[in-house]
Amino acid sequence: MTLVMGIVNVTPDSFSDGGRFLDPDVAIAHARSLSAQGADLLDVGGESTRPGADRIAPRVEQQRVLPVVEALASEGLFVSIDTMNAATARAAVDAGARLVNDVSGGLADPDLLAAVADTDADIALGHWRGPSSQMYARADYDDVAAEVAGELSERLRAAEVAGIPRERIVLDPGIGFGKRGVQNWQTLRALPRLTAVGCRVLVGTSRKRFLTDALGEDADLSRRDLATAVTSVLAARAGVWAVRVHDIPTTRDALAVARAWEA
Ligand code: PMM
Questions:
Q1: Model pTM score
Q2: Is the C-beta atom of 135 inside 6 A of ligand 1?
């Protein structure tokens, strides 16, 4: 059964919820409510990856996320840390995180893979072609599906060489990361190619801009949760392990309906 990962952005500037949960107590309360709504795991992030975003110091990132990770993990919740920094990954695992979610697939910080290898945590490796400040600088592909699968296989190999066994590795095609509109749809259509690699796969489409290709340019954020639920169901049918979403009830309902259809 596909798991639902709830998004907890402790940032001032994430594209759909920036600034809403910057206070740790507000972020913790939000995460608890996502859990009560049925999120299977909670992805806590302190650095926005919205297109154009600048990097922040790991110290600032840790001030934002560590109190939240610690509080949620101490309640027995399954916490993932969304970070590209080895030091933050290490500190978050010490605070109880069980999954390190690196959208850069270990490329942004050359120490991250070895840092995770030293722990018992799992790792999600995202497909990434450079920082958010230059999000679309390398969004050129001859065959986006093949290139995403090929580049992720290289990151998988790098993680294994660093000492992380395959059972602890999750692959993520990085929807919206270095990919423009149609390239995201082509990547999603080819998800079975990624699930065939044999690792667990994670997919995040939630509220992302490419959804307006289907909904129309004027589809604001409030109209994107249903579209997210549909793409999440289609991803589940392609065999993914988890979907990363903001709105838990809509996606959970959609997944339940799809399961009833298939039962
Ligand atoms: N997308 C965002 C942030 N973190 N992590 C993974 N594994 N996959 C994603 O697609 C992903 C991610 C950006 O979205 P947000 O700003 O709404 O959190």
A1: 0.97
A2: no
